[in-house]
């Protein structure tokens, strides 16, 4: 017989279970594997790439995105060397920032040798903050995407803040989005630069759902317009992570360009911040 007392007890337990499941679901939604953009450790990588990668692994980052340097895209290491070093440390090189230039064919070959999945154009390959220029660049990106696809790579683009300027009442970044093929050009959204530009990343997740398989997760000091440690800037990181599915993100790279103390201290803080969520 179900008494009123037993009913209240059972419904209370059900309610507690529902809350717990909700909390577990929330935790599952915002946690995951995090990578790091090596530009965050640019000086250390030039001095001693192997030791720096070892220290990054100790912080708990699992994926690596390379960047250009005075010693090339792999900081003086060969493609196979950086790939093997990462693998030995329990990490994987999954992406790299590159230039879309005359050496792009060699760049693609080296990326294939590392086993990475993405090649990301790190900035506008040509000058001109006009709608027509962005349409021309979009066509360049489509062609680069075709070339990468033939080799088993995925081509993409990483934004700064200037792409969100308006020309003729049109946001230039939207011109790129509307004129690139989603199966050829995979956008890496730098969330920090989006908020500095006065835009809301969530509005782009909603307008172009599934178009952002890569993120740069970067908090920004909104007064100085520069990066800062997580929780100290203008990006609602927890809210961004709750909307991962809508954006289509598969790889999240933590990046920080300016530091309170050292890159390692800042990136340790950032990983602790993510774990605390």
Explained architecture:
The protein has 277 residues and is an alpha/beta fold. The protein folds into 2 domains: 1-30; 33-276, Alpha-Beta Barrel (TIM Barrel), CATH 3.20.20. It has 12 helices and 12 strands. It has helices at 4-30, 42-47, 49-59, 79-88, 104-114, 131-150, 172-179, 191-196, 201-207, 237-242, 244-247, 263-276; strands at 34-37, 63-66, 92-98, 118-121, 154-158, 166-167, 170-171, 185-190, 214-217, 219-221, 226-228, 251-254. The strands form 3 sheets. The chain has an 8-stranded parallel beta barrel, surrounded by 4 helices. The protein has a two-stranded antiparallel ribbon with strand order 6-7. Strands 10-11 form a two-stranded antiparallel sheet. Strand 3 (92-98), helix 5 and strand 4 form a beta-alpha-beta unit. The longest helix is centred in the first third of the chain and has 27 residues, at 4-30. The relative contact order is 0.12.
